[in-house]
Amino acid sequence: MSKHDKDTSTSKPKAGDVPLTGKVVLIGSGVIGRNWAVLFARGGFDVVLYDIKKNEQLEEAMKDIKESKLRLLEQYNMLGKNGSTKDLLDRISVSTNLKDALCNAIFVQEGVPENVTLKQNVFEEVDKLLYELSQTKKGDMATKQQWNALYRVLLPPLFHRSSAAIE
Ligand SMILES: NC(=O)c1ccc[n+]([C@@H]2O[C@H](COP(=O)([O-])OP(=O)(O)OC[C@H]3O[C@@H](n4cnc5c(N)ncnc54)[C@H](O)[C@@H]3O)[C@@H](O)[C@H]2O)c1
């Protein structure tokens, strides 16, 4: 049984359990979401950006990432060791369907506006969808791993200090 197949339904993952490759889902593609997208891509992860405003917002986010953020990293020789501007850009995609985005995710992070009710609703929705995915065979690594991902849902402010860990 591989690390990804283990039964995590009864225990939360321990520190160090997080895989070093895989798909990261960012919910909200505003100031914070798009910056984290670049950071995770720079760290070698595949990234899916999801936003409630769907196409218009996501297009703007990708334009900003491509024409501003990645360009700046390249200009200051800060792309890191995991590839070129194109490599990083290729790792970032968008989705207008949250359930599809969450399928086979190894990590989920929300970056929606600072509103408790809104954040609670997002967590509830992610909880529901991860549970549904955990009950299906959709995707290669579905089932228990989806449930596992639930325990890695974090709020951006709590996560700032961890940025060095994914570089
Ligand atoms: N901007 C900062 O400097 C900063 C710094 C630290 C922490 N934060 C925190 O990060 C979070 C996000 O802040 P931001 O500045 O990126 O906000 P933002 O307004 O720039 O972006 C929020 C995005 O979330 C999207 N959104 C709203 N509801 C959604 C939903 N239900 N599902 C999916 N997407 C949804 C919006 O369409 C928008 O694109 C907030 O909690 C904020 O307090 C922000």
UniProtKB/TrEMBL annotation:
Coiled coil: none
Organism: Reticulomyxa filosa
InterPro entries in the record: 3-OHacyl-CoA_DH_NAD-bd (IPR006176), NAD(P)-bd_dom_sf (IPR036291)
Gene Ontology MF, one: NAD+ binding
Protein name in the entry: Crystallin, lambda 1
Any Gene Ontology biological process: fatty acid metabolic process
Domain 3-hydroxyacyl-CoA dehydrogenase NAD binding stretches: 23-130
Domain of life of the source: Eukaryota
